[in-house]
Amino acid sequence: xxxxxxxxxxxxxAPGQKAALEEWLCEENLTYEQAQARLFExxxxxxxxxxxxxFYQRCQQRRILERIQTSAATANTVVKKFEENPADTFRALMxxxxxxxxxxxxxxxxxxxxxxxxxxxxxxxxLDLAAQQVELDRKKFEWNxxxxxxxxxxxxxxxxxxxxxxxxxxxxxxxxxxxxxxxx
Length: 184
Prior knowledge:
The protein has helices spanning 15-27, 32-43, 49-84, 89-106, 112-151, 153-161, 167-179. It folds into three domains: 1-84; 86-140; 152-184, no CATH class. Helix 1 packs antiparallel against helix 2 and helix 4 (89-106) runs antiparallel to helix 5 (112-151). By secondary structure, the protein is mostly helical.
């Protein structure tokens, strides 16, 4: 941002007047000429179009910087939250996407890209859930195998002691004892 001129009438406005001018330009979307007319009508201030243009550009720059700071703070909070509890990651990302969609809709922007991002996140979530299911199934299998081995410990010892079987044959017998015949 450049330093405002020392003789700038708009920089000398009272804080409430500056806020009003910023609202007219940024929220109400008045043209520069309309803002000039309203400045004169409401505050008795005359200024050129260039002064209003410069004021608007400075407001926009400040707003962008504030938004970047807010976004950075939010991102840091989100990252910290993810590190504390990875299970909340999906819910937090969906909240962020929802917020982006809301802001985009308010600003009249296309939200098709947000829909694509949401679909990508949902697909990723489905893959994560499938991976979690595979891990759970593996743990259940291990538990059931250990349980079955414990019930058959004497028979397994006899298989292990059978000198007439090589290692592969012993493993096949143990497998059949614990899990039944191999399906054909």
